[in-house]
Design goal:
The chain is mainly α. It is 45% helix and 4% strand. It contains 22 helices and 6 strands. The strands form 3 sheets. A two-stranded antiparallel sheet has the order 1-3. A two-stranded antiparallel sheet has the order 2-6. Helix 16 (364-376) packs antiparallel against helix 19 (450-465).
Length: 541
């Protein structure tokens, strides 16, 4: 296989080692693989690339997802006038930003190949069943994010190019089925090792414990995460393939692996320094989104102080106010830089910490909201809709240390999203009665229509997903909820509808000129053009 524009020095080092024998250990990249004396005992040739796979999910975070999915989700915004104020936020797609989506996938998948080579050539007598299962889950998670951005994705054929060296894409529909299949295999293998006596697969367990930045080597928690991810993907298919959505969701709901239904099992990568720590607090390039603040202000949401910092601008000092996306920023940071900054002060630490940050992959709240929607759709094993919905809110409040306030919140029958007032430019205001403001309330109401129940579930799910912009944006596109503010400055040249909003991120020039089969990818878009207005396969509502 030929990799394009990817440096895989570790892979080369492993091949060199396997070809040359132990005498060439000094030639191996020690930072990645470990010192010769602990090379075998610490399984460093597997452990360190595994850590790199996990940490790679936040690499180049500003370019992806912060300046794309995070912004499109309504959770974040910016006062920085990138490219003269004409950029992703105004639907002028920035090729040099958006190329990081596939680049990060290539890095992570290449580390997977490094691990395979190390296991084969350096540790041939070690059975890495559980470690490889975790690696498979990380690949699915990564590729699903790529697919939810672009649509077609190079996944099943990543290591098998055609005879001419060109690598084909999977359609998003095929990719999702491959993801489910691989998650099932990972769950089976994790449970196999979990059920072994503790003195079996000791090398596998030891390697995973050292490599695991999420669960510290807890195999059962990884199985829960894989099964929860399966439920997420199954529900994503609900409009595009309701039959398989139901099948896969019901399998996940009844699986012996269980789901992440308690915050103790939340999937958070311990990344050390969160890249958002300097993007927000040093560079000032990221502010909180206006829709997020409008909902939380309207609901008098106790999580507000965990999500955002009060504004410092003299006109709104002490208030929680976000910046509306896709507007004329006037003088940029001079005008809007004093609006509320994002933060993420959870009960389990500061996700945006500069020293002990965490990247949110999946939490208990999401599982309960997925179950609520599954129950709404009549899926077997989903349980009671209201119980699931309220448990989702309760788990989210627990995640953010606001448990004492949840009963009052859930009993609120009247609060709705607040109007948005921009003191810098009244033309950006969203006044009461505007269709861009939701009228959905908090308390569960069995008498509501099915669609209104769905809006309530997804709106609260969206609030709980913070700061997971990619997942929030995907669910908003799939369901239409929560209702978000539309951009006011559309620089797409007619390619993206202001009313329909952006539906995907186009492929970039790096992909068009690579050994990926770009023309085939365009055909797999189902007749749509390669632009931000074309819907993805699962975007069928």
């Amino acid at each position: 296989m030929k990799f394009n524009n990817i440096k895989i020095l570790v892979f080369g080092a492993v091949v060199l080692f396997s070809a040359s024998g132990c005498g060439n250990l000094d030639d191996i990249n020690q930072e990645k693989l470990g010192s010769p004396e602990n090379f075998y005992a610490d399984y460093a040739a597997v452990v360190n690339p595994m850590k790199s796979m996990q940490r790679g999910l936040q690499s180049d975070y500003q370019l992806y997802p912060n300046l794309s999915a995070d912004m499109f989700s309504g959770m974040f915004s910016t006062a920085t006038q990138f490219n003269g104020g004409k950029n992703n936020m105004t639907y002028f797609m920035m090729d040099g930003w958006n190329n990081r989506i596939i680049a990060r996938q290539q890095d992570i998948f290449n580390y997977s190949i490094v691990i395979d080579a190390a296991a084969k050539n350096i540790y041939p007598d070690v059975d890495f069943t559980a470690t490889f299962a975790v690696k498979k889950i990380l690949k699915v998670f990564t590729a699903a994010r790529v697919s939810d951005s672009h649509g077609p994705v190079v996944y099943s054929k990543y290591e098998t190019p055609n005879a001419n060296g060109v690598t084909d894409f999977d359609s998003q529909q095929d990719a999702y089925n491959f993801f489910i299949k691989d998650l099932d295999a990972a769950i089976t293998n994790l449970q196999k090792v979990q059920n072994m006596p503790a003195n079996q697969n000791e090398g596998d367990r030891a390697a995973l414990k050292k490599a695991d930045l999420v669960f510290g080597g807890n195999i059962g928690q990884w199985a829960k995460f894989a099964n929860s991810l399966k439920l997420r993907l199954a529900m994503r298919m609900s409009y595009a393939d309701p039959v398989k959505s139901k099948q896969y969701a019901e399998e996940a709901l009844t699986s012996s692996a269980g789901l992440i239904t308690d915050n103790a099992d939340n999937a958070l990568i311990n990344v050390g320094q969160s890249e958002l720590s300097f993007i927000i607090y040093s560079w000032g390039d990221c502010l909180i989104g206006a829709p997020l603040m409008a909902y939380m202000n309207g609901y008098d949401d106790p999580r507000l102080s965990a999500y955002a910092i009060p504004a410092t601008d003299g006109q709104v000092q002490g208030k929680y106010i976000g910046v509306r996306q896709g507007i004329d920023l006037l003088n940029g940071k001079t005008t809007y830089g004093g609006f509320s900054q994002p933060q993420a002060k959870s009960a389990n630490g500061d996700y945006f910490s500069g020293t002990n940050g965490k990247l949110k992959l999946f939490t208990a709240a999401e599982a309960w909201f997925l179950k609520a929607e599954a129950a709404l759709r009549g899926y077997a094993g989903a349980g009671d809709i209201q119980v699931n919905y309220e448990n989702g809110v309760k788990q989210s409040f627990g995640e953010w240390g606001k448990t004492a306030d949840v009963t009052t919140y859930l009993s609120n029958t009247s609060a709705t999203e607040a109007a948005y007032v921009d003191p810098k430019n009244a033309s950006n205001n969203i006044n009461l009665g505007d269709a861009q403001l939701s009228t959905i309330t908090i308390a569960w109401n069995n008498g509501d229509s099915t669609e209104r129940k769905l809006e309530r579930i997804i709106t609260q799910k969206w609030l709980s997903l913070y700061p997971n912009g990619p997942e929030a944006w995907a669910e908003q596109r799939r369901t239409g909820y929560p209702i978000l503010f539309k951009i006011r400055q559309n620089d797409s040249g007619g390619l993206i509808s202001t009313d329909a909003m952006i539906r995907r991120i186009p492929f970039t020039n790096d992909t068009k000129t690579s050994l990926y089969n770009y023309q085939q990818a365009v055909q797999l878009l189902g007749g749509g053009a390669d632009n931000g207005g074309t819907k993805l396969w699962w975007d069928k509502k």
